């Protein structure tokens, strides 16, 4: 899928405006001319400049590049199903990871996707188990990022 530069440019400007608006809610420091909102605001201004450049490029290319051009991959139902499954797994994790927990969610998602993409059941389970425990160890023990335990809270280590 290909987009004319005007579309991501517009999205970039909208994101930058939201970022600047959020940064404006940061508390002011007493006696300072600038505060914690300075750098996010400067970054937002830079993003607005980049978005404006993209929009001008998109306008200049409008005769040769359509707004949206769907690639050949979208003609294959298997490819579309793969994209839908990945997006569905992301939504599944967002909605159920707190109640189900990271480990069961990750095992389920990785196993399903690996099988869908052509791995055998055995290989999928082995890779899913190894990957889940490596990710959990790195995030929870090394980086100290708390991952949801969900149904495994009674046996949390």
Automatic annotation (TrEMBL):
<dbReference type="InterPro" id="IPR009936">
    <property type="entry name" value="DUF1468"/>
</dbReference>
<feature type="domain" description="DUF1468">
    <location>
        <begin position="11"/>
        <end position="148"/>
    </location>
</feature>
<feature type="transmembrane region" description="Helical">
    <location>
        <begin position="39"/>
        <end position="59"/>
    </location>
</feature>
<dbReference type="Pfam" id="PF07331">
    <property type="entry name" value="TctB"/>
</dbReference>
<feature type="transmembrane region" description="Helical">
    <location>
        <begin position="102"/>
        <end position="118"/>
    </location>
</feature>
<feature type="transmembrane region" description="Helical">
    <location>
        <begin position="125"/>
        <end position="151"/>
    </location>
</feature>
<keyword id="KW-0812">Transmembrane</keyword>
<feature type="transmembrane region" description="Helical">
    <location>
        <begin position="80"/>
        <end position="96"/>
    </location>
</feature>
<protein>
    <submittedName>
        <fullName>Tripartite tricarboxylate transporter TctB family protein</fullName>
    </submittedName>
</protein>
<keyword id="KW-1133">Transmembrane helix</keyword>
<keyword id="KW-0472">Membrane</keyword>
